[in-house]
Specification:
CATH class of one domain: Alpha Beta
Shape: globular
Distance between the termini: 15 Å
Strand content: 5-15%
Number of strands: 20
Radius of gyration: 28 Å
CATH architecture of one domain: 3-Layer(aba) Sandwich
CATH topology of one domain: Rossmann fold
Length: about 675
Amino acid sequence: MKALTAALLLAAACAAQQRDLRLEKERPAAAAAQVVIPRSYALVVGISDYRNMPDRALQFAHRDAEDIYRILISPEGGNFRAENVRKLIGPQATLAALRQGLEDWLPAAAQDDDRVLIYFAGHGFVYEGKPYLAPYDIDPRDIARTGYPMEALGRVIGGRIKARYKVLLTDSCHSGAITPEAGQQINRSLLEIERSLFSLTASRDRESSYEGPDWGGGHGAFTYYVVKGMEGEADENGDGIVTADELAEYVRRNVRESTGARQNPTSDRGSFDADMPLSYIPKTLARRLESAYGALVVESSMDGVEVFVDGASAGVVGKGKPLKLEGLRPGSHTVKGVKMGYEPDGPREEMVYPGRETTVTIKIVYQRRRNPKAAELLDKGIEQYNKGYAENYRKAVAEFEKALSLDASFSRAALYLGRAHNALFEDEKAEKYFRRAIETDPDYVEARAAFGGMLLSLGNFDESIRQLNAVVQRDPNHALGHALLAQAFRMKNLYPAAIEAARRAIRLAPAGAEAHLFLADSLRLSGQCGEAPQEYLEYLKLSDFESRLAGKLNYYVVGFLVGSGKKKRAAQTDIWRDLRSLAYFGLGDCERLLGRPDAAIEYYQKSLGFDREDPKVHWALGLAFTRKAELEGTLDPLRAARGHFRTMLEINEHLEEAELARKYVAKIDALLKP
């Protein structure tokens, strides 16, 4: 019997945790026809505040890293899959995390034809003639032991990371941080790391790199132009692809001009492919006829105005705080200023001239005037919508449609139309109106959060992450955005990122039940069953209301249980039951993995009480009863185990665990044979 149970436990230790039905849509090609986008991996590091160096804090390194992350995962940019980009910001960027990402993850993940990008924004130091990158926990009194040696970076990139394209972008010689001699040594070592690597450093020998509000409202000069270049401004030949040579030339020229030649980014051609693709621009830019770039200086009559240039967000401008946008291609650009509740200014055409700054004044003056009848219809629709249930959603849709017909710019009506169609599982209509709300008011974070939630429920995790990332970047205190982002990361198996996002959501809104569930699930699936149970119990406590009320609740993500193995999307009541079932399942899994089968069985049976037809729970119960038989040294629990394995097969004989279940039933039958 011990041989049987050992085999069962070994084979199923992780299998029962994978209660995931992956419904991820393929990303469409984002560049011109015939372009093959390589599989890509990136490690993005940004450290502004150092644990042991409070006097050497940077202002914008963390924002730089967030912007690099945004452009990398954008289909109109780097086109990296979100699960292939690891982001270490501030306290996350410890020496241990840096080593794990560089020395373990990237060498294990990347293959010969892939693309690998490493970005670092923070401090660099030289100790006893050797250069080091400074992780968050560096001790300036013990740099050799707590810094990350450039020699190690060279060994990893040159000898261990297998990739056709290798990119290193570094901004580590900040003004006042190190001596010119140290900066020279750091920059030289970065350029000499590996000849097949495209290495672009922020400054030249004996120079410092600069940051400040002049670059996009608050960035390092180097990263600001790297991002602008990858957004398409560096596409010199207008073919829709930004190459290594194009980006290097664009960044060098613009950083030099904007800093008065005090900072000169440097790259060494080496033997890397000059046509190495760095970003893909679906809407190919017109071929450039001018050799110089220009700038827009955006002023505003009001605080908190988001500026869009050529349809992309360029930053937020305030009254008396101009937003300087440098490095723009000469010619006509569309500029629009938006603020929720006000009539936008634009879009309108503004000319950018080579080598000149053009001042643009955004005038946000008039509050958006609503048709009184449209506002009345919206209120009536919300009243029906808040009642829940399909018949009320239908009534709400009718009211919202009338409101929108009277006022085509009524973004709130469009949002609620999206929500109502989403609640009715009419996905195409829901997406249409969510997008309409966002197009009307691009800074409408509530609409982006709702849209991101729907995308999450449909299994479109990459686009969900992009929308939700825009929410939390625009509003760092948006608890729902962080909670939904946690679940999106969880569905991509990005458990550290999911845990961080869930913790942020809980700090902002401790009573938000679902964030506790997402945190618990991410902890469990990453093998951290010590803390997970208390988070599951907190979710169960916060969501402890009568199931008859569940149909009246408006779950932001009606189908966020696509990852639980459940495909039902019949009503909010089902979702409430499924969530509680999942919480009890998670508690059972933790107890089983901690070697406590009796407690596991009790929780699994509670999970089964919400859905008797869940094959995953029957599978887990079979494992728990098998473990109980082993610990007690008796055969009786094996009869219960056999029953649950058989039930699992009857419900769904095509699960990946099905073949194992058949073998276990046969072995149990042999043991129980008189």
